[in-house]
């Protein structure tokens, strides 16, 4: 039993990064409570809860959300809802951070396309059982675009990376993870043997650790964000 628990913790070590990031988001909250990132601790907590609940459903037969024979351990509904909320939150952040009118228009149109993708994806793949790959792929691509537009704006101000800027660190983490996530998702769904051969699950967990390490660094190094300040 002890060995089983130890193995489970070892295989899901990345969940600890969510918890650490959440703790620091609360500790540093006074530095950004009135900024565009004021809801970020809620998103981190929601991520931690979703991952933990998904893990419990997958590992323990006593708890389930799908009451279909052979599918009791399926947890994709939790993550399909999670990614919709997660992406929309960051589109909100970048829409309230970017100042270039052309960039803002692109993000607004992209958000509409993402919402449409979320609406039509379940027509082809049951959201209760399967990952919504169309929605997640569109969401990842648009989030990468948002990050790139943000860094383009910083560069126009003569800034490459402000290490005391919380959103800069968040953006680095998002870019590191979501550049690869859609490919890991698609390979895992269509080519599971290749997924195993590439140790994609291990890479996925490592990328989560990298992303949340960037968030943690951002909290540790950040300066106070003034209400009227561009993040």
Q: What descriptive keywords fit this protein?
A:
Rhopdopsin 7-helix transmembrane proteins; 231 residues; 10 helices; 0% strand
> Would you count the extended β strands for me?
0
In terms of DSSP E residues, the strand content is under 5%
CA gyration radius, whole angstroms: 18 Å
Structural class: mainly alpha
Low-confidence stretches: none
Q: What is the CATH level 1 assignment?
A: Mainly Alpha
Number of contiguous helices: 10
In helices, the fraction of residues equals over 70%
Coarse shape: globular
Number of domains: 1
What's the CATH topology name? Rhopdopsin 7-helix transmembrane proteins
First-last Cα distance: 48 Å
Largest sheet: none
What is the CATH architecture annotation? Up-down Bundle
Please provide a written account of the structure.
By secondary structure, the chain is mainly alpha-helical. It has helices at 2-11, 15-27, 40-59, 76-95, 101-124, 133-156, 166-178, 181-190, 192-197, 200-221. Helix 4 (76-95) packs antiparallel against helix 5 (101-124). The radius of gyration is 18 Å and the shape is globular.
């Amino acid at each position: 039993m002890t060995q089983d628990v130890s193995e489970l913790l070892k295989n899901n070590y990345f969940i600890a990064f969510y918890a650490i990031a959440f703790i620091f988001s609360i500790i540093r909250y006074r530095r950004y409570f009135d900024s565009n990132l004021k809801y970020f601790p809620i998103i981190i907590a929601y991520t931690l809860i979703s991952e933990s609940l998904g893990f419990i459903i997958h590992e323990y037969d006593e708890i389930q959300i799908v009451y279909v024979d052979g599918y009791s351990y399926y947890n994709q509904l939790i993550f399909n809802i999670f990614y919709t909320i997660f992406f929309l939150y960051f589109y909100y952040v970048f829409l309230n951070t970017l100042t270039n009118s052309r960039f803002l228009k692109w993000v607004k149109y992209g958000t509409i396309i993402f919402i449409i993708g979320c609406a039509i994806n379940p027509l082809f793949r049951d959201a209760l059982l399967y990952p919504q790959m169309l929605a997640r792929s569109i969401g990842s691509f648009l989030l990468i675009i948002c990050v790139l537009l943000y860094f383009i704006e910083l560069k126009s101000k003569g800034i490459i990376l402000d290490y005391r800027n919380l959103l800069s660190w968040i953006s680095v983490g998002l870019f590191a993870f979501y550049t690869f996530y859609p490919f890991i998702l698609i390979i895992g769904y269509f080519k599971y043997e290749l997924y195993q051969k590439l140790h994609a699950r291990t890479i996925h967990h490592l990328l989560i650790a990298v992303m949340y390490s960037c968030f943690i660094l951002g909290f540790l190094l950040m300066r106070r964000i003034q209400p009227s300040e561009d993040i």
